[in-house]
Design brief:
Elements: E1 2-7, H1 14-27, E2 33-36, H2 37-40, H3 54-65, E3 70-75, H4 80-90, E4 94-101, H5 104-114, H6 122-137, E5 144-147, H7 153-163, H8 178-185, H9 196-209, H10 212-218, E6 219-226, H11 238-251, E7 256-263, E8 266-272, E9 285-293, E10 296-303, H12 306-312, E11 343-346, H13 349-358, E12 362-369, E13 372-380, E14 383-389, E15 402-407, H14 410-419, E16 428-429, E17 436-441, E18 447-452
Parallel strand pairs: 1-3, 1-4, 2-3, 4-5, 6-10, 11-14, 15-18
Antiparallel strand pairs: 7-8, 8-9, 9-10, 12-13, 13-14, 16-17, 17-18
Helix pairs in contact: 1-7, 3-4, 5-6, 9-10
């Protein structure tokens, strides 16, 4: 039996999400049972500590005996020990724990709205929500945390199902419900809409099957594949990504897609493969965040851990950073500054990114709040730039900083910029500086002086 256990403070939405999960599974005729532990163990006088788990154990054993291989459960776990006891009483062969969370004011409002005005324990329940929120946030063994803030129960349920597609769907191929698989087998030609998580699965299936034509159609021409840290292995276009994926497919680096969870345009994906253990990855697993826009994958970002990837997809809080510790080994000269990256403010980061992409830059990292891009780290060879959204108007004439950039063919670059309607200045003699240079202004009025460099000139040690 596989058990999905929802936990969270009072008011987090456990009952509503549990019912939404059950409704979705029932709609697909997926056999399952549902248990709300607080309701199951409610009694007067209350059950003693040595008896309150007996009803849970008995009911779960019966469901298992009756052939219900999927159990949905909800419980307000008040400690790590409490959660372990509950999981032991459920007795599932395999389980996952999902934490639901919301803001304190939301928890309070939901409790007051759902309980009768004369409910004698209302104040106690509200106080319990406040007390248990940090406790439940620190529980061990939570596989996924989902905010219910401003979310309909059906949307939260769909996000949870997407995280464990092979467990929370019926026995079709690769987690596709039997009813859907039957419809697909009829080879209907009518177009079907596809969610972002399903698009990622389609791309992964194509990768496993060696179908790189289908995979190419899923990838945007400007797709990026980036590691946790900048490296020479980073890919900035579709051809490079496909070439790297072909090598990975031939080497058997990845063999399965464990989990997919959709957080909007960001999709969490957990991959596994026996050869990944050679890279020091626990159980051969690796996690990434795949960004999908307009029906195509535009970015694949590897992460160091599952927690970081879930946070990157907006599916869980950002994990607390480890306390800083000195290096175990150091070298002479490491105590000196060795690099510098300009950090400029911009009024519209998206517009600035489009401008710098015309110069050959690629977005290396970014942070988006809602629809607006708040920060971006761009790179083009050795040239790097960070942009942050300004909280005050950018006045072009007051910009006292300018950037110096280098290109191998300044004339070709200028021609391309002019064709893109960029107001690029004339190429002139920059003596006593570079022989050829031109002036360009970015959308916020920052001055860019771009000089031509030949093979014999070295700008950075590289």
């Amino acid at each position: 039996m596989f058990a999905l256990v929802l936990t969270g403070p009072p008011g987090a939405g456990k009952t509503s999400v549990l019912e939404a999960l059950s409704d979705a599974l029932s709609a697909e005729d997926i056999r399952h049972a549902m248990v709300e532990l607080e309701a199951l163990t409610s009694a007067h006088p209350p059950l003693s500590d040595d008896r309150w788990l007996m009803p849970v154990q008995a009911v779960c054993e019966l469901y298992n005996r009756f052939g219900y291989g999927l159990l949905l459960a909800a419980v307000t776990a008040e400690s790590d020990e409490h959660l372990r006891e509950v999981l032991g009483a459920i007795g599932a062969d395999e389980h996952v724990v999902v934490r639901l969370e919301a803001q304190p004011a939301t928890l309070r409002r939901r409790i007051i709205e759902r309980e009768p005005a004369a409910f004698p324990e209302l104040d106690e329940l509200v106080a319990a929500a406040t007390r248990l929120t940090p406790v439940i946030a620190g529980l061990d063994g939570v596989a996924l945390a989902v905010s219910t803030e401003g979310q309909r129960p059906e949307a939260v349920a769909a996000r949870i199902r997407a995280a464990w597609p092979t467990k929370l769907r019926s026995g079709g191929r690769r987690g596709i419900p039997l009813a859907v698989e039957s419809a697909l087998s009829r080879r209907d030609t009518a177009p079907m809409s596809m969610g972002n998580a399903e698009l990622v699965r389609k791309g992964f299936d194509a990768f496993l099957d060696g179908d790189f034509e289908t995979l190419s159609n899923v990838l945007d021409p400007t797709v990026q594949w980036l590691g946790p840290e900048p490296s020479n292995g980073d890919c900035y276009d579709r051809e490079k990504v496909l070439a790297t994926l072909r090598d990975a497919q031939q080497d058997g680096v990845v063999s399965a897609l464990n989990a997919v969870a959709e957080g909007g345009e960001q999709v969490f994906a957990e991959l596994t493969g026996p050869r990944r253990e050679e890279y020091g990855l626990p159980d051969g697993q690796a996690c990434m965040v795949v960004t999908v826009r307009n029906g195509r994958i535009v970015r694949m970002q590897d992460h160091r851990s599952r927690a970081e990837a879930l946070a990157g997809a907006g599916l869980a809080p950002k994990p607390a950073p480890e306390p800083p510790t000195p290096l175990a080994h150091t070298e002479p000269g490491w105590d000196q500054v060795s690099d510098l990256v300009p950090f400029a403010h911009a009024d519209d980061i998206d517009a600035s990114v489009r401008f710098y992409e015309r110069l050959g830059f690629h977005v290396r990292e970014s942070y988006r709040s809602g629809e607006r891009l708040n920060w971006a780290f761009l790179q083009a060879g050795h040239a790097r730039l960070m942009l942050a959204r300004a909280d005050a108007p950018i006045i072009a004439r007051e910009q006292a900083t300018f950037f110096y950039l280098y290109a191998r063919d300044l004339f070709a670059l200028r021609e391309r910029l002019v064709q893109a309607d960029v107001d690029a200045g004339e190429i002139r003699d920059g003596t006593p500086g570079p022989k050829l240079e031109m002036r360009v202004e970015d959308p916020d009025g920052y001055v860019l002086m771009i000089a031509q460099i030949d093979d014999e000139q070295v700008i950075v040690d590289g």
